[in-house]
Amino acid sequence: MDIPKEKNVSSWRQHGFVVYPKAVTNFYVLRYLQWLIRGGTNAAYSTHHQSLWDIRMYEPVYNAFSEVLGDQALMVSLDPKETNRIQGRVCLQTEITIHKSNRPQRINMCDLIIFDAERCHLDLDLDFGSFWLPLTMIPANEFDDVTIQERVQYWHAKPFRTYLSSLGCKLLGLEAWEPSLP
Fold first, then answer.
1. What does pTM read for this prediction?
2. For residue 74, how far is the Cα from the chain centroid?
């Protein structure tokens, strides 16, 4: 990350959002876009496509959410009902300017924006001239055992195999997070 942590905290407190420049590599974003162009949005089990999981498991993306949420034990949101007020989007276009707090903010391809939907009313998904990858993580303790079991069953029922790192297994719920030491 190019932004010092202090600037992230300041931006979060003052504006309700923080931008992590180049949080995702060009390779991952371009591979995801290629999959979308080939009809990825209509594919069964699209939330488990390898290109999407590679972005979710990318350490700078995980670290950004961990920093904002103040928790290392996280799980990815797989659908709208799991999404909480802290949301993330990866920019999928060359450049976009958002206007917040009377100042324009340039966001480029591969940048990650994390925002508090209650404090910072960004209608990124309603702007039809922009393209974003919704990418949200939630503290793992907000998931109950039944929801985790449903996620695991859904994972095992999919017709194809996706590689998950150890981090990916934890972000999905296949592996439990180790309790943090006091």
1. 0.87
2. 11
